Amino acid sequence: MSWQAMVPSFALLPVSVSAAAIAGAGASGICAVCVLTSALIVYSARLALQKSNVAARQLLTASIIYLPLTYLVLILTRF
Asked: Domain limits of the chain?
């Protein structure tokens, strides 16, 4: 179960950074996307290490919050 949570989270880092670069977000937007993705990686690592229902719920919550915040950052840093 540990690799099933970690691999997609690590794969999001280059995808998110490239999306921010393509969208013209600038350095602050790219840094913000890196911070958001790093937070998701932390929650994935917590699930990989603890393997509990609480860690799984926290990862689910983080993943639900991640995408709208990423889009918001991309939109706000574009202007």
From this structure: 2-76
Q: What integer pLDDT is reported at residue 78 of this predicted model?
A: 78
CB atoms within 10 A of CB 27: 9
The residues near 39 (Cβ < 8 Å, ≥ 6 apart) are 62, 66
Would you give the DSSP letter of residue 77?
T
Distance CA 31, CA 75 (A): 14
Q: What is the pLDDT of residues 28-54, one digit of tens each?
A: 889 999 999 999 999 999 999 988 999
- Identity of residue 18: S
What backbone torsions phi and psi does residue 41 show, to the nearest 5 degrees?
A: -65, -40
